[in-house]
Write a structure and sequence with these properties.
Number of domains: 2
Order of helices and strands: EEEHEEHEHHHEHEHEEHHH
Bound molecules: adenosine-5'-diphosphate, magnesium ion
Structural class: alpha/beta
Strand order of the largest sheet: 6-7-8-3-9-10
Shape: globular
Strand content: 15-25%
CATH superfamily of the largest domain: P-loop containing nucleotide triphosphate hydrolases
CATH class of the largest domain: Alpha Beta
CATH architecture of the largest domain: 3-Layer(aba) Sandwich
Mean pLDDT: 85
Length: 270
Amino acid sequence: MTALLEARGVVKRFGGLTAVDGVDISVGAGEMVGLIGPNGSGKTTLFDCLSRVLDIDGGLIEFDGTDIGRHRPHDVARLGMSRTFQLIRVYRDLSVAENMHLSIQWGSLGVPQLFARTDAAARRRADELLDFLLLGRLRHERAGNLSGGQRRLLEIGMSLMSEPRLVLLDEATSGVNPTLAADIADRLRAVNSERQVAFLLVEHNVQFVADLCERVVVLDQGAVLAEGTPGEVTQDPAVIEAYFGDPGDDTAGDDRVGNSPAGAGDGTAP
Ligand code: ADP
Ligand code: MG
């Protein structure tokens, strides 16, 4: 059986820097896979390659058996893969519901259609998803008034509007308090089990990933350093070295592995 997403030898260079250096990664239908690694290890760049936001310099990317290596992002979205961004992208001056309505059009249509009327089916889907994501009572709220965690939930809702089979989620818990992080984990689990949506989760919160994923891939300096269960990778000496190895590197401060204080409270399910 081939995976839903299958990438082999993906390479991405920025000038002289090889940000993604021959990565193999796969996600099966309905699977939840974690992607962790120190800051600057290439996680977001790999997402940009997989979702075709960035052109790749080498390798092969297949989604559901289709070579998407030269597809444009909206074609990938139409095939059933959507993503969120590390920096939240919602329209702060629009309501929660309006953001949901725009997202589906962003995925499938051009700018002129952005201002066309949203059809009834899309409105129903938006309302249903907002209820499911605990945002129902906020549907008329200005998105700029939401908390960080609520905005992350809205982004997840927006990514689900196109009925994807795979969502790439970049840092779903960054800037989110532990209670809302637990809500997000709970909702992702529900989306996965009730709607068979597969996820590839980029996270600095290793405990969050460990709670949700049976398989975790660890990136370091653009390459896969380890792959296995959360228990296996967090015990792996090479992974511990990558996170904590260089005492002069304070950029890895948030990216704790194991039973660190930073991870312990953050991703715990309710
Ligand atoms: P992560 O998401 O794991 O923190 P990134 O994918 O953001 O890592 O970055 C990987 C490396 O690529 C870093 O060294 C970063 O500085 C570099 N990088 C990312 N985006 C660009 C870009 N647009 N131009 C040049 N270098 C970039
Ligand atoms: Mg990143």
